[in-house]
Amino acid sequence: MALIFILAESALELVPKEVANHPSVAKYAEKLGKKPTEILLDRSYHHEAMKRLSCPEKRGRPDIAHITLLEVLGTPLNREALLQTYVHTIDDRVIKVNPAVRLPRNFERFKGLIEQLYAAGRVPKSGEALLSIERLNLKELKEKVNPSKVIAFSTVGKPKTLSDVCSEIAEEENPAVIVGGFPHGHFRESTLKIADEVIRVDKEALEAWVIASRIIYQYELATGLPEKRLWQARL
Amino acid sequence: MALIFILAESALELVPKEVANHPSVAKYAEKLGKKPTEILLDRSYHHEAMKRLSCPEKRGRPDIAHITLLEVLGTPLNREALLQTYVHTIDDRVIKVNPAVRLPRNFERFKGLIEQLYAAGRVPKSGEALLSIERLNLKELKEKVNPSKVIAFSTVGKPKTLSDVCSEIAEEENPAVIVGGFPHGHFRESTLKIADEVIRVDKEALEAWVIASRIIYQYELATGLPEKRLWQARL
């Protein structure tokens, strides 16, 4: 029994070919000693180039996956290996995250690691994979992990408290929760379609890392984990 | 009635004079076009230089304050202006954080902003302060904000569930919670002394951003905020 956490449509991708030659991208890549198409698109540095892209408001924010992953992987639930974490990206890749991975806390190093991952398909190159990436859309990911129930969190969903949601999914064998990994806008239709329920838990949109941390904590509460761990012998 | 959140002994400081001339620091500062003593100490870049410092294991991790502040400032509690946030640093400065501040999501820009703050004492230079900094130790901060109760979270504390802690402090007029803003080790004696209770809520040490997010969410639960906001008219 484990919770499946999916950060969906994440604003994480390599620089697309159509802006690879833009000065703001080319100069930045050169400084890193990489080809433009080997580095992550990042609005903080490629703002001008991004104006040429479609849906720019949903793209180029690798910090969202970084901070959300640090939140999620640091939880007691993950330390108990009761959490399976996936990052689905806006261009339909899926990164499978080993619960044991220790991601760089430094953002630039995190980006370097993800760039390595794109280049090699997995990190590290040999031995047990800590991160692996493949072309997969959300529907295919769902077929692969085969969750007993899928809940997506969105301000367009029907209102329900997180406490009620988590009491319900705590009864499930392997429920999946979907949180948006993009800064603005809404899920695509195709994402909403794979969810059994679309729920909103607040009157405003919450950042991915805020909603992710409370979903996992509330799920822990519903399954009695905090109490159980507290009274275990100290490590 | 508001919750006071204090990130204490945070691993956030300008490069100290004794390592300002170390090559790893001097080169990095030059690249930024700043003096070494005007930039933040950051283990990711100044690891070698830090070997010369006392207590290096508790220093040079500005990412901890960054990620924790993003978590904390994005909560519904903060959006309701029911949260007062302070970052106390290892060298006894206190940064007062305006609930309305929108911090840079990009780590390098966050560091740039904090460096401006150290230089000017406040950000922005005129108008309402979004961040301000002064020399203050934790005891002085406590006298200033005058909390009705102070709870510090530490693995050396007495075991209690977060749910019990928050039910208790929800009854208080202006309770303060203290979370460590450093990567390893424990609070100083002087920090523990200002707390009415020292509590551990898990068998292992949790990262600052993980414990911070669950304290605030659990406090929201104890005060009925999630339910209240959910059923308010949508903005």
Could you walk me through the main structural features you see in this protein, from its secondary elements to its overall organization?
2 copies of one chain form a homodimer. Chain A is an alpha/beta fold. Helix content of chain A is 39%, strand content 20%. The first copy, chain A, is built from 10 helices and 8 strands. Chain A has helices at residues 23-32, 43-50, 62-73, 76-79, 107-120, 138-145, 162-169, 189-193, 208-223, 225-230, and strands at residues 3-10, 83-89, 93-97, 122-123, 131-135, 150-159, 176-180, 197-200. In chain A, strands 4-5-3-2-1-7-6-8 form an 8-stranded mixed β-sheet, with helices on both faces. The first copy, chain A, is globular and about 55 Å long. In chain A, 45% of the residues are buried. The model of chain A has no long low-confidence stretch (mean pLDDT 96). At the A-B interface, helix 3, helix 5, helix 9 and helix 10 of A face helix 3, helix 5, helix 9 and helix 10 of B.
Brief account:
The structure is a homodimer of 235-residue chains. The first copy, chain A, is α/β, with parallel strands linked by helices.
User: Radius of gyration of chain A, rounded?
Assistant: 18 Å
Q: Helix share of residues of chain A? A: 25-40%
The general outline of chain A is globular
* Sheet of most strands of chain A: 8 strands, mixed
Find the biggest chain interface: A-B, 46 and 46 residues
* Helix and strand sequence of chain A: EHHHHEEHEEHEHEHEHH
| Beta-strand segment tally of chain A | 8
Give the strand order of the largest sheet of chain A, numbering strands 1, 2, ... along the chain: 4-5-3-2-1-7-6-8
Number of helices of chain A: 10
Please, what is the average pLDDT of chain A? 96
Uncertain residue ranges of chain A = none
Q: What class do helices, strands and sheet pairing of chain A give?
A: alpha/beta
Distance between the termini of chain A: 24 Å
